[in-house]
Amino acid sequence: MKKQILFVLFLFATTMLFAQQDAVYVEETNSIDLQKSKKAAVDFGVMMGGGSLIGVDLEALLVQRFGIQVGAGINSYGLGLNYHLKDKINSSFVSFVYWQQGFGDNHYASYVGPFFTWRLNKILQAGVGYGVVVKKGPAIYDTKYSDMTGSLLFNIGIYFPF
What we know:
This protein has two domains: about 1-35; about 40-160, Porin, CATH 2.40.160. The protein is α+β, with helices and mostly antiparallel strands. The protein has one helix and eight strands. A hairpin with a 7-residue loop joins strand 5 and strand 6 (about 110-120). It has an eight-stranded antiparallel barrel with strand order 1-2-3-4-5-6-7-8.
């Protein structure tokens, strides 16, 4: 009788164990599918929106892994063509960007160049790149950097996929 009770308890325990593993797998699969279904993201942070002190970018995936982003800040705007390293919006990506800092008499400089954005799976992102100066504005001539030909581009902030 003891062997039968132990067998039933063992059978019940293994059934519960396998049932829990299937539930975890289903939750992970649903989570991955939900992340893949999100095709856009909005980013807020420092040096976002074309290199503004405070800016915002909006990114949308056009096709698998390729996207476009536009952004604006206090006194700047930017554009970018992105290639994501994974098939989801919340993955890191490589970009070719255009940043313009300033408008009119306050235009400092405009840059183009490569940019890498590192994204954590949730909320945090940071990026770094190099921009070649394609146009100098009137504001740059009031500084010691008037002979500048390139600049380090960077940003840090948060993002929300939707």
